[in-house]
Specification:
Arc Repressor Mutant, subunit A; alpha+beta
Length: about 230
């Protein structure tokens, strides 16, 4: 699936990074007119790459002005796939071969090793764990377009708008399971996965509760209002 033009790809990638947004939000982000953004969004919707909602499908709704509520736009699975520049097809083929040749335990071992290696890179030098914002920043650098949003005063939500290996995770759920376990280890607390792109949800979300470590972490209180 290809984008219907360079401007359409810019808008789609803005949605990938920012998550569900109104046309006004995207216009401000990309320094374009709302009318121009709506025209591009129309083309993306016709191509099946973007869908419109009456409200944000997850997390806080974008700010709206007076008058008629604005539609909130997000990428479809096809839109996210079009943004993906990874070699996910090759990864799926390799995992299938591994499973057939060596059994599902080989895939599980690979998933665990990959998740642990990715998580260990999130821990700052001299520390034993990472804060939620450090985890989100590291995931974004790895292509997951992650962010942290507050959930009351007892937890935060980790949202991943993109997954570079979504096709592999769809066929081999152990990829998501291993990632969740590894994130729990690096955060020093239990992580509860609520939704995944691999299961057809709009976003990957996980709840990270506050505990003694999290409240005292380097940036949780500074970047999340609790």
């Amino acid at each position: 699936m290809k984008f219907p033009g360079e401007a359409a790809e810019r808008v789609a990638r803005a949605l990938l990074t920012a998550g569900p947004s109104t046309a006004t939000d995207l216009a401000e982000l990309l320094a374009m007119t709302p009318a121009g953004i709506r025209r591009i969004l129309g083309g993306l919707m016709d191509s099946g790459l973007v869908v419109a909602h009456d409200r944000a499908p997850y997390g806080p709704s974008p700010k709206r002005g007076r008058g008629r509520p604005s539609s909130v736009f997000s990428l479809t699975p096809q839109g996210r796939a079009a943004c993906d520049q990874s070699y996910d097809d090759l990864a799926v083929e390799a995992l299938r071969f591994m499973s057939e040749a060596y059994g599902p335990q080989a895939v599980e071992a690979f998933a665990t090793q990959r998740a642990n290696r990715m998580a260990s890179a999130m821990v700052p030098d001299g520390a034993t764990t990472a804060s939620p914002h450090e985890v989100a920043a590291a995931l974004s650098l790895a292509g997951y377009a992650a962010e942290i949003t507050p959930l009351g005063g007892v937890s935060v939500q980790l949202c991943q708008h993109h997954c570079p290996v979504v096709d592999a995770a769809r066929e081999f759920p152990v990829m998501c399971e291993a990632e969740t376990t590894a994130l729990g280890h690096v955060l020093g607390t239990h992580v509860t996965r609520l939704a995944t792109l691999a299961h057809g949800d709009e976003v990957c979300t996980a709840v990270i509760p506050f505990d003694a470590h999290t409240v005292a972490s380097r940036d949780t209180l500074g970047k999340v209002s609790v």
